Amino acid sequence: MEKSVFLWFALLAWAGVASGLEVSVKDILKVDEYDRDHRPNYLGGPTKVNVSLVIHSLIVDESRQLLELSGDLIQEWRDDNVAFAGGSYRINSVQVPATANSAIKESLWLPDLHVSRQVFPTKSGADFLRIDSAGRIAWTQKVHFSFPCKLNLKSYPLRSHPCTLRLESVGYLSDEMEPEWNGDPPVVYSSVVVSHGYSIAKVDPTSKISLAPGHKTKRQLQLMIEVAPRSGWAVKHTVIPMVATVTTAYLAFFINIRGVCARVIICMLSLVTAAIFHESTYRKVPPAHDTMAIEVFTGTCLAFIFVAAVESVVVDVLGHFPTKGRQPLSPKRNSFALEPLFSQPDLTDDHASSRGQVAAIWLDRCFRVLYPAGFLAFNAVYWVVYN
Ligand SMILES: *[C@@H]1O[C@H](CO)[C@@H](O)[C@H](O)[C@H]1NC(C)=O
């Protein structure tokens, strides 16, 4: 007898606990009495929303001047109307995976932060609501923002681009809703994946009061993200080949002045190669009228090679200057022979030499010194100015 009474008591106790846990989230939050059109604390000042962001990936779209950011946006605020007596349910928070058609998400007030000046609508994926018994709500959202970022084309690709993400409420003014960066740090990007060739140099969250239409003000959260190009890429794929091409053109000055064919071929091949590299600097950037830093470099290299080509032709013209008593050229001379840099031209024993040829050889000797000196000077100035 005693045994069965004990059994009944146990069964009743179990049923009580079970029914206590099975109260629906809707009942706990008293959603039926909740008016989602009133923002929390609407009688007592602005609704404060704590915002933090975890950046997972960042894509720099150079041709469209866009930054695509994906990560977790976490917003926390207090809503006294959903506070519940945790003790009577033996729980102190409810968690709602807020899928698109979740009834709880549909019936609660949610902050309307969005990206101002966005290019494409924000894509938001899964989100999650956590509500504790004191009425604190934490809303985690998977977001994908695309926002414009004017690339710093004048110093492309050597310097970083500051890009600003701006978050603000669609309609609430600064005295109605107060979003604020919160957390330590508010923006986490330690495990971010950045598109190839870039890295994040700096992330700076700030907030300011911005002007909304109609002389009203809104509180705007700003996030300055500085994306820095890895300059090694440009150096490897443009600067080193260009320097090699200019050096090749320089070799033409060492070819005998009678080998005009070899000289012009070297210069022309260098010119074509340099022109290809020059054009390829445009491959990724928008067709802007800004002169890019890399363009200044490749353009100057092109100019140097062009000067070398012109010099070769001038030397040839001088060498064929008609003079009296001209005799056939010495058979010793080979058009591909390199002349020693600082030796006297052996014109003294070459009786066939005209004054034109002397001038040509002196021109060559001048260029052998001036050309590399000019190129080094340009490089010194360029890398000081752009670094
Ligand atoms: C927001 O952040 C402030 C400062 O850290 C804190 O005092 C406040 O409780 C937070 N609000 C919510 C709703 O979490």
TrEMBL record:
Q: Which GO terms describe its molecular function?
A: chloride channel activity; extracellular ligand-gated monoatomic ion channel activity; ligand-gated monoatomic anion channel activity; transmembrane signaling receptor activity
> Mind listing the UniProt keywords for this protein, alphabetically?
Cell membrane, Ion channel, Ion transport, Membrane, Signal, Transmembrane, Transmembrane helix, Transport
Domain called Neurotransmitter-gated ion-channel transmembrane: residue spans: 238-339
Q: Where are the membrane-spanning stretches?
A: 233-253, 260-277, 297-318, 369-386
Highest taxon of the lineage? Eukaryota
**Recorded topology in the membrane:** Multi-pass membrane protein
What this protein is called in its record is Uncharacterized protein
